[in-house]
Amino acid sequence: MPRDSHSPRLATRLVKGGTSTVVNGGRAVNPPVVRASTALFESMADLNDARRRRSSERLFTYGARGNPTGFALEDVVSGLEGGYRTRLFPTGLAAMTMVFLAYLRPGDHALISDCVYQPLRHFVDTFLEPWGVHVTYFRADGSDAASCMTARTRLVYVECPGSLLYELCDLPALAELAHSHGALLAADNTWGSGVQYQPLKLGADISIMAATKYLSGHSDVMMGTVTTTETAWQPLATMSDAQGVAVSPDDAYLVLRGTRTLGARLALHEKHALEVAHWLAAQPAVARVFCPALPEHPGHALWQRDCAGTNGLISFELEDVSPEAAARFVDGLSLFGIGASWGGFESLATVVNVASARTREDWRGAGPIVRLHVGLEDPRDLIDDLAHGLGAINERGD
Ligand SMILES: *Cc1c(COP(=O)(O)O)cnc(C)c1O
């Protein structure tokens, strides 16, 4: 008996069933999580056409080149950064390292600002230098950048404001310097998150963010983004495709969900952090408070010129220079979690080693530096907790 083509057998029904995306009624507010490796086409002609166009156009052709949920997030990030297009990476660090791979070749020279996210130094030492790319660190305020440029310099990489102490550099001036030497300017914009700072609008060609931080905002997902101008785009897209780097649609969905409240959260982080910063500055146990929104910060004038606001990060130096004092302070806190990273809804505290994170500035001899991420808790409770921590400094065990 010939098989009825309208009643496929069980194994076939298991493969073919349940694929309808048509729903009756209205549509959801949010884009769907599209879990996909394979993309299906109507004909070989359509598949070949997509393959021809996918290097220059954003098309869903295979999961390793991005998925529709990730594309929705890319669009949000491109809008935040004011850039042409965006690619997503599994971590912020992977986004950073892809920039070096995409725009540099052995024999090239790169300038990196001294206040850069510290794990990048490890990438430079373990991969970039052995691969044949020469790196020079320049001062976080950019003051010696011009004298560090060489005929082989192809990339100037900055983090502004910098990690741990929030140093600022004059980004438009650095862009002019880089471009006059035929180099590109890349900026780590994790601090600004596209809300408080927009490097591409200040002349940078490439902007990178650890979406792990404020974009996601909930300490439950890792991701990095790279957004570029139209001119700088192709090397990034080509190298990312060549290496098969992609993120899961579930992770993209989580970050996309976080971005909906990014502006509202940052406004509160800023308000709470400023309350805490002003209180800290008045404490005798505190030698210095680092926050670019404070007039005494060395980068304050540039912050006023280029930034729309600040975020939940503040660092401070203790008067008591013993490392044990800083540990007693942090251990004496109960509302602040002890941990690295930041950008979630919660407050964190950690003692940071600035001396090992800077090569152009000598930090030996300074008191220990504590970095706080001020979260969305009531700042009055946070200040009570910090007062308790400062009290614990003097409770010596001996
Ligand atoms: C955290 C961070 C990164 C790295 O992001 P991960 O997602 O943790 O890899 C990069 N740059 C800055 C400034 C960061 O704070």
Would you kindly provide a written description of the structure presented here, covering whatever features stand out?
- There is one protein chain.
- The protein is an alpha/beta fold and 398 residues long.
- The protein has two domains: 66-259, Aspartate Aminotransferase, domain 2 (3-Layer(aba) Sandwich), CATH 3.40.640; 262-396, Aspartate Aminotransferase, domain 1 (Alpha-Beta Complex).
- It has 14 helices and twelve strands.
- The chain has helices at residues 10-16, 44-53, 68-81, 92-103, 119-131, 145-148, 171-180, 233-243, 249-259, 262-281, 300-306, 323-331, 354-357, 379-393, and strands at residues 85-89, 109-113, 134-138, 153-159, 184-188, 206-210, 224-228, 286-290, 313-318, 337-338, 348-352, 369-373.
- The chain has a seven-stranded mixed sheet, with helices on both faces. Strands 8-9-12-11-10 form a five-stranded mixed sheet, with helices on one face.
- Helix 4 (92-103) packs parallel to helix 5 and helix 4 (92-103) packs across helix 8 (233-243).
- The chain is globular and about 85 Å long.
- The model has no long low-confidence stretch (mean pLDDT 94).
- Bound molecules: pyridoxal-5'-phosphate (PLP).
- Pyridoxal-5'-phosphate binds at residues 91-93, 96, 117, 159, 163, 188, 190, 210, 212-213, 222, 224, 341.
The low-confidence parts are none
The H-level CATH homologous superfamily of the largest domain, spelled out, is: Type I PLP-dependent aspartate aminotransferase-like (Major domain)
- Strands ordered across the widest β-sheet: 1-7-6-5-4-2-3
Let me know the average pLDDT.
94
**Distinct helical segment count:** 14
Number of strands: 12
